[in-house]
Amino acid sequence: MVPALEKIIAESDRIAFFGGAGVSTESGIPDFRSVDGLYHQKYDYPPETILSHTFWEENPEEFYRFYRDKLIVKGAKPNAAHLRLAKLEREGRLKAIVTQNIDGLHQAAGSKTVYELHGSTLRNYCVKCGAFYDVDFIANSTGVPRCPKCGGIVKPDVVLYEEGLDEEVLSGAVSAIRKADTLIIGGTSLVVYPAAGLIRYFRGRHLVVINMQPTGADAQADLCIAKPIGQVLSEDVLLED
Q1: Domains of the chain (ranges, CATH numbers)
Q2: Which residues are Zn(2+)-binding (predicted)?
Q3: In the 3-class helix/strand/coil scheme, how is 57-110 assigned residue by residue?
């Protein structure tokens, strides 16, 4: 199956990649919807409740306790999937990555055109004065993190439930998917909307799905690969196939 993917990649010069949590699980970042992920845990509310705008406003102490514990992952490194995608971009074949992940690993691998639909844990801003803070500021704070300059709450630049996606990021992502001749969907079951709805803008030739579980796009795909994405995109593995 994997040689079929390589053939499609070789024939393409405008690839877009649409990815989700499964891209980062091989870097040791748990998918918070998985059985072994955040549900296996010590909080009084489900993750979707805690990671909502209302909860952030009404229970900030508990929000930040959960956020530090579950969403800030120390020492995670890009895996074979991140590295291969960055290489395809350098080669001029891959034009954009559209990701639902908030870990910044695509950029750490060297990818330049990355549309982060749900924001990033690496960026944090004071809601009062707009001052920027890095991930360590939140990680090393206690209780509700406050801006040393003005005392405002420092909020992660992450799209919480009930919040809208950034319009600029959204339009860039739509444009990249619309212009692609090949769309590779990887590490996502396509259940989170509105993000998952973006694939309907694809008009190109080849649709590829790389995901361990079935997705809503399988029926339209030219190729479905039910293997870990790092393994599929790793060039060492490809040579063995």
Answers
A1: 2-29+78-118+164-240 (3.40.50.1220), 31-72+119-158 (3.30.1600.10)
A2: 126, 129, 147, 150
A3: HHCHHHHHHHHHHHHCCCCCCCCHHHHHHHHHHHCCCEEEEEECCCCCHHHHCC
